[in-house]
């Protein structure tokens, strides 16, 4: 073994989870990394465990492989579930679509079973391969930085306790115990970029650029990412304020920021408003427009520049068809609190037509576009309440996100 032997592998689990005793999930594909994770966590035994395998229906052997994982779990006394994804429509990037679907399915599964998080079998080799792949895409610090050991996403916490371990060691650990694993043929298919990166590492190793050294580089970049996030959070605390669901940035303060700090704050602000993720080049173009004093739309948000402030607000057009039942969260941003609503009532955007029914909307101080994107209670096409537009009728709109959430997102990326 290359990195301290069996005990070192087992310590990765206990060091990562510590005294955690809440139920945890384990995502197991059947490959060596995830199978090793399954058995290492079973040996650890610090929390109740439940396992999941996602069958993407992309290979005829996948169903049998998932059943093989189920048998291993049964032998270990661990509950196992198989989730199926068969929604591939032949459009776009198959690997990206399958990955997004897998994580979404796993997140829903974790929530259904009340799991505190889900462990994934990513290793130092994955970190090195990802670094090479993202270098080819000319990624910046965030893209090149190592995967995070913990990350809140898809409605759960994703844990990667084996980022300090290497595939070679995990396979030796399994072999010593007579535990088998599945070799996915796609891992040898040169059409996949990860396969090409894995092969490139073999040729780079004589130059001192093997998996271990590249994983170290990615870890250094993760430190840089964390430092930039720290300073971005400090600057956001100085120049940002919330106004009835919109985010206002002091224009002069924002203009004085270093470009990477400004980019981070803008991207985090867009996520704070709409919950999505804006691509780096799109954020860079938005910054260029702001520098010219112009606004734009991006990631379901409106970005405007006037009266000494940069305003980030929800884009009304992105809210078409988004509804929620009374008492639930609407658009990931608002709840309406008030008397019981009539059966069939729903929360949706106020819109321009609804604003026309609210003569006192200007008292809010919000621009018309922000009022149009505000939550309203409707029933059979009739407006019952628009709290931000001066027509409360017994209801109040409560934002689900605070500036602390903005700061937290900057610190966690």
From TrEMBL:
Subcellular localization: Cytoplasm
SUPFAM superfamilies (UniProt xref): Adenine nucleotide alpha hydrolases-like
Keyword Iron among UniProt keywords: no
Transmembrane segments: none
The tRNA(Ile)-lysidine/2-thiocytidine synthase N-terminal domain, residue ranges: 25-199
Binding site for ATP: 29-34
A molecular-function term among this protein's GO annotations: tRNA(Ile)-lysidine synthase activity
UniProt xrefs under CDD domains: TilS_N (cd01992)
Protein name per UniProt: tRNA(Ile)-lysidine synthase
Taxonomic lineage: Bacteria, Pseudomonadati, Pseudomonadota, Alphaproteobacteria, Rhodobacterales
Gene: tilS
């Amino acid at each position: 073994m290359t990195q301290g032997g069996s005990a070192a592998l087992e310590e990765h689990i206990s060091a990562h989870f510590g005294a955690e005793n809440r139920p945890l999930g384990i995502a197991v594909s059947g490959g060596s990394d995830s199978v090793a994770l399954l058995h290492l966590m079973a040996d650890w035994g610090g929390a109740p465990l439940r396992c999941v395998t996602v069958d993407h229906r992309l290979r005829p052997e996948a169903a049998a492989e998932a059943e093989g994982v189920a048998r291993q779990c049964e032998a270990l006394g661990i509950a196992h579930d198989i989730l199926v994804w068969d929604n591939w429509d032949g459009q776009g990037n198959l690997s990206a679509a399958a990955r997004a679907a897998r994580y979404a399915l796993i997140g829903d599964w974790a929530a259904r079973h009340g799991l505190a998080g889900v462990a994934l079998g990513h290793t130092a080799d994955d970190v090195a391969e990802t670094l090479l792949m993202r270098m080819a895409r000319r990624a910046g610090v965030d893209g090149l930085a190592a995967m995070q050991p913990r990350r809140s996403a898809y409605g759960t916490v994703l844990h990667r306790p084996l980022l300090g371990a290497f595939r070679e060691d995990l396979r030796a650990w399994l072999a010593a115990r007579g535990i088998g694993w599945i070799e996915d043929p796609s891992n040898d298919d040169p059409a996949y970029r990860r396969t090409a990166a894995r092969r490139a590492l073999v040729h780079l190793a004589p130059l001192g650029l093997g998996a271990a050294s590249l994983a170290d580089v990615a870890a250094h970049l993760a430190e840089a990412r964390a430092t930039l996030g720290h300073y971005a959070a400090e600057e956001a605390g100085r120049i940002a304020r919330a106004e009835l669901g919109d985010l206002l940035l002091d224009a002069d303060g924002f203009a004085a920021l270093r470009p990477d700090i400004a980019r981070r704050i803008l991207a985090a602000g867009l996520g704070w408003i709409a919950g999505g993720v804006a691509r780096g080049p799109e954020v860079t173009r938005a910054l260029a427009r702001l520098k010219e004093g112009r606004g734009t739309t991006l990631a379901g948000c409106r970005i405007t520049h006037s009266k000494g402030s940069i305003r980030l607000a929800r884009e009304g057009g992105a809210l078409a068809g988004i509804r929620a039942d009374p008492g639930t969260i609407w658009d990931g941003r608002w709840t309406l609190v008030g008397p019981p609503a009539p059966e069939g009532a729903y929360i949706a955007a106020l819109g321009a037509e609804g604003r026309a029914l609210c003569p006192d909307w200007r008292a809010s101080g919000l621009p018309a576009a922000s009022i149009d994107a505000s939550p309203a209670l409707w029933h059979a096409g009739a407006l019952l309440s628009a709290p931000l537009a001066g027509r409360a009728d017994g209801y109040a709109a409560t934002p689900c996100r605070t500036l602390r959430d903005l700061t937290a997102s900057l610190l966690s990326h």
